[in-house]
Design brief:
By secondary structure, the protein is mainly alpha-helical. It has two domains: about 200 residues, Alpha-lytic protease prodomain-like, CATH 1.20.1510; about 80 residues, 2-Layer Sandwich (Alpha-Beta Plaits), CATH 3.30.70. The chain has eight helices and three strands; from the N terminus they run H-H-H-H-H-H-H-E-E-H-E. It has a three-stranded mixed β-sheet, covered by helices on one side.
Length: about 300
Amino acid sequence: MQVKTLLKLSVVVAVVTIVLKTLAWWVTDSVGLLSDAMESFVNLASALFAIAMVTIAQRPADDDHPFGHTKAEYFSSGFEGLLIAGAAVGIIWAAIHRFVEPQPLQALGWGIALAVVSSALNGVLAWRMLIVSRQRHSIALEADARHLITDVWTSVGVVVGLFLVTLTGWVWLDPVLAIGVALNILREGSRLAWRSVEGLMDTAVEPDVRSQIDRTLAQFAHPAIRFDHVVTRRAGQRRFLDLHMHMPASWTLGRAAALRSDVEQALMSEVPGLRASIQLLPSDVEAHFNDPVDPQL
C-alpha cells in the first residue's frame, strides 16, 4: 500500500474517531474523554499536513533542489509534534478547571463503548502504517503511526480511569487522568519534534542499512581494491552514500569505471532508494578533505 493512500485513510479514520469520541464526551461530560477527542483533532490536522508534505517530497529533483525534496517529510513530523504539545496544554487547562469544580459523570457505559471502538480503529491503522513506514523509510508515515499508537494508549487509560470512577465514585479521578493523558502525549510530541530536528541535520543512515552497505562492499574485497571515507546520510525516504574506492594506478580508466559501476549497481540493488557516489583513486593516493586547513594559506 502506498504512503499517501495510508495517510488518506488516516484522515478518514480521524474524522470517524472525532465523531465517536466527541459523542462519548457529550453523553458522559467526562473531561478525560474530552482530552481523548481533542487528540483526535490533532490526528486529523497532522494527517492532512503529512499528505501535503509527502506530495512535495515525491517531486523529482530540479535545478533548485538537485538532491530532491524528500526532506519535506521532516516538516510533517515537527508540525505534528507542535500540534501535540498544543493539545496537551489545552487538555491540562480543561482538567485543572474540572478538578477545581468537579462535575458528576453520566452514561459511562456508552462513553466507554464508543472510546473502545475508536481505539480499535486507530490501533489497526497504526499497526499497518508502522509496517509500511519501515518498508518505505517514510518519517511522515511513521510519525502519524506513532501518534495513533499514543492515541490508543490514551484511550486505554481513559477507559480504565472511567471504570475506576464507576467503581469508586471518585469523580476527581477524571481530571487527574486527563492530566496524565496530556503529559503522555506531550512526551510523544517532544520525541516527534526531535526526530524532525535530527532529520534536518543530515544524520547517518540506520544501523541495519549501514550493515547492508558494508556487506555489499565486502563482496568486492580484493588485495588490490579497498574502500575508505565511507559517509552516509538520510533525507526522508532517500539514502545517500559517498566513498572512495582505491585501485592500482596501472588500471585503465575503462576498467576502473566498469568496476565502479558494478559496485554502484550492487549497492543500489541491496538498498532501494540509495544514491551512491564513488570517487576513484589510485592505491597510493589518499584524500585529505578532513585535514585541518592552515589559515595562513
